[in-house]
Amino acid sequence: MLKRVVKSFNPLEVEIAQYLSSETLRSDPRNHTVPVLEIFSVPDDPEATVLVMPLMRRCNNPAWQTIGEVVAFLKQVFEGLQYMHELHVAHRDCVAQNIVYDPRYMYPRMFHPQETDKSFNFKGKARHSTRTACPVMYYFIDFGLSRRYNPEDGPPRERPIRGGDKTVPEFQNWKGDLVDPSPTNIYYRGSLTIVTFYKFKGAEFLGPLVDDMIAADPLQRPTIQEVVCRFDELLKPLDNAKLRSRLPLRGQPEGWVTRWLRDVGHGLRSFRYALLRKSAIPLPPSS
């Protein structure tokens, strides 16, 4: 996966991506930033640099099938965001488009880089397993709007930068004040959870936490440390049956025959995974 970065547009992207992918930080299992394999300049274009990264896949493709798969996704994303905050790095655009996963185990024969639903040789559909059978590691990408801060300079303050999510309350009537980017990152994560998971039945247990994460007042939002702790508390009442339950879409009524067939198919698959001791929260070994 190649990305051309133009210094005049994103002057800090290469530096931050290289820092987060350094050997010392890469060895930490909480690091969910995309590995940078190589960096090279572009001949005859001193403004351009090319980042070489592994081939990844959009976080929501294919769709999650169980509550446990959703939990595994959120757990990794919260963990990765917490790790970046500990390093005094603010992503500032952590929307769904900027979260991907390593598909090598879920897609053992991979897929075509351009037509991702096609096989690598373009002769058929790309065959894949499920996240429960083959747990995946999620990564943040795109550090074009990111910033790294010196803790000795005090709390970070920045002019707002509008990323992929245009609904951030503190950006709507901005009057020129510098803002702390950390609460905005929390809002992005809460907003992403609503857009991505509230369309499924069964995700209601996330409601109290998400409501606080998208509070209109940035000062009322929890810190990422509080988000991680509260999320872990929300998981405690969830048993295996709940975690392995399927995710029907809201607003799309299922006829009783369709629902019965889907329930039976999902139930048999879940029973098989339980016999194989596949975790109901499918986390990769290093997560």
UniProtKB/TrEMBL annotation:
GO terms for molecular function: ATP binding; protein kinase activity. SUPFAM superfamilies: Protein kinase-like (PK-like) (SSF56112). It comes from the Eukaryota. Signal peptide: none annotated. InterPro entries: Kinase-like_dom_sf (IPR011009), Prot_kinase_dom (IPR000719). This is Uncharacterized protein. It comes from Dichomitus squalens.
